[in-house]
Amino acid sequence: MPRRTPRTTLDRLRTPRRFTKFLGAASICALIAALLSPLTQAAAADSTSALAANDYCGGQCSDILPAGENGTATLAQILLNQAFGSQPSHAEDQLGPYSNLASGAATLTDAKINDFFNDASFGVASDQVESTINPGGRTDVTIVRDKKTGVPHITGTTRYGTEYGAGYAAGQDRLWLMDVFRHVGRGQLTSFAGGAASNQGLEQEFWRNAPYSEADLQTQIDNAIANNGARGQQALADANAYLDGINAYIDASDSGRYFPGEYVLTGHKDSITNAGTIDHFKITDLVALASVIGALFGSGGGGEVNNAISLLAAQSKYGVTEGTKVWESFRERNDPEATLTVHNGESFPYATKPDTAQGEALPDAGSVTQEPLVYDRTGSAATSTATSASATAAATTLTSAKRGMSNALVVSGKYTASGHPIAVFGPQTGYFAPQLLMLQEIQGPGLSARGASFAGLSMYVELGRGQDFSWSATTSGQDIIDTYAVELCQDDYHYLYHGTCTAMDKVERTNSWTPTTADGTAAGSYRMQVYRTKYGPVEYRATVGGKKVAYTTLRSSYMHEADSIIGFQMLNDPDYVNSPQTFQSAVQHINYTFNWFYADSSHTAYYNSGDNPVRASGVDAEFPVWAQAAYEWQNWDPTTNTASYTPASAHPNSIDQDYYISWNNKQAKDYTTAPWGDGSVHRGTLLEDRVKKLVAAGGVTRTALVKAMADAALADLRAEDVLPKLLKVINSSTVTDTTAAAAVTKLSDWVTAGAKRKETSAGSKAYANADAIRILDAWWPLLVKAEFQPGLGTDLYTAMTNNLPIDESPSAAHGPTGAHAGSSFQYGWWSYVDKDIRAVLGESVQGGLTQKYCGSGSLSACRDDLISTLKTAAGLTAAQVYPGDDQCSAGDQWCADSIVQRTLGGIKHGKITWQNRPTFQQVVEYTSHR
Question: I need a labelling partner for 493 at 20 to 30 A (CA). Which of 154, 183, 334, 410 fits?
Fold first, then answer.
């Protein structure tokens, strides 16, 4: 029996004309998450499912994924939620436990861990079975859902049936979200879901990055299958079975009229006649989906044009030699004080600065213009709101500061109380309703895993556990994207390729929309246009030495969005992964840029994945280079976009290091990542300090490691690691100004109390040390500007802030979903401030800046600048510091920080207190091994 609720008259009600514009409220990465929340499942058969015998975790594996597993809602459920706040079953039953860890960690014990997490053991005890179905009436697969969370436990007797069940369960839990994803990946979101400015920005952001035709999508599938032998053929069979399951659910829900209500609200279905269609999924949809996820979380690099602009600004101010030194000091390519994941001193050189750069193609000053993407705007596409969304989307796509997120804490058994390794890890993927990820357990021939997968790609578990090991990932950000300057010939749409004038390939997408119940945005349309070259899509135009050029971006995973499927297949195969070595072998097949972590009962492991191109000798990956044979990737074939890649041994990797931490920090010595900010202070430092202390003491437990993560999740990085040094400068003489002195006292008391952004008590919705937090939030941007702008000058300071934002506090509109996204302190100038202030204080600094900026190096002048800006900050009211938004009133500090599950469909969830931690998270300690 399909997953559904009993039909009521509400199922056939027409939607109110003025229904909430839930799509129109989306922020720019938000529609990725979509708009639903699932239904109650009726039992189809008796079940006596028992705990699985192939589980070696001994009841010590746990996980959590807010808000809830159920991500589908009928029209009736949406209307009830909007009117009365009622929730579909399992739509938010993981939200409370997740949120409560912020206040509950202090009294945590091993026995209480599952008060805040789910039991992630394999199987479902017979008395915990909520429902059992045989999807599509098949006898070779069963989907059991548990009472506590409604997670699907899929068990098949054939490989086809197992994957069919995975597809069916995905349709049950995330159908509308998957449909949104496939349209985002094709650059067709507005025509499908409405013309809200945020929808326009979202489709533009991803289509600029991956402007694929339908033929391109199919080619990627064909190549991935052809290049991977039997595993490739198995992946194709698995994908087709998975699609069959999705489509079976579409047919069943359509005929049974319990499909997601968003199809009615967006005009795709009629709630009275049931007219309209829900298109079946096809295999190219999976590639479109993968391109979105890869672009969001696994494509490090880019930003070479911005790097060039800031370098030229530095050289303009200081001269070429000194300006280059200044630029390099801020770039921190290989900072000796950076927090490292592989911290044993082993070197993994990649994208390092060459002794003498070759082939650089820096633009002439002032000549750079961004390549337009959108043309022929009509109606609501021509509003200032729409054009602003387009500008934001372009900036997000072209920056090197990709939103990485995710963290990991892994401790070797040598330092634990039990002698078994312990891991607390997971991805930070933002907060949505429903979530981008979905939970499942999948058991069948050649498949045995439980964990999370991105909706629409859940034929395999992507992050989770096998029979006797768990794995997870964080975004790594090493540079797999290069910028080439292609010299133009004939006109602006032809370029020289190996001496031949070659036409660019123009790819277009025309979208139009009309108002719907879900999105009342007025009618509009536009055309997206991308010119592609053999060196990738055109992103900028400029002149270099007077010659007209187009700057293109070439990504090693471009035209290879499907390749990673083999690595995930291996991770789900119990006959393949059975050791840290075989784990590393599996993730080597993932071409996106991730840090991968592993723990079993005896070993831990780490590996950095991604197709790292081997660059021509002398090429500096930081800057654009000429599109000439001498500067291309080694053995690069433009037809397939393949090249020579660095060998596995050259990627940062390790087995059984004493501990591993990762929070998108630098991977290893000499391994340069594309984003700026890998310096002396990084949010990874918050984990490093805590885990290092635990390991030094020994006897680490699951409770201790969860506490370390939870403590770091509430820490203000600036307050913990930089504020004490700022106060040291200020207190170098007696503070006589009463306003400044009061502010210093409040800040000092906060530091003494632990520098946390934490409620006074659970549910109080007010922070302890609230005044100090307000003062620092206001002070940081003021002090950074006062410290650095006078020395750098306005032009260079502005250029540097384009490379690296100065701040990313919880209340700021940063992260993939804008404000209220949880993830904070990934990018900022904390390392620069730290190094500069220490230098002014006369303390030792390794890898310091080329000069002292605060007060031009004078301690007293620096102190004056800090006190002056501190007085200004202290005088700002809460309403000025936290001006309010669509979620919060002005002055509400707690709300400004709070995490919002972005409800882009009809189901709403409440705000939760801020925590800087993974969205999906595991706590694991295996007791035995096969």
Answer: 183
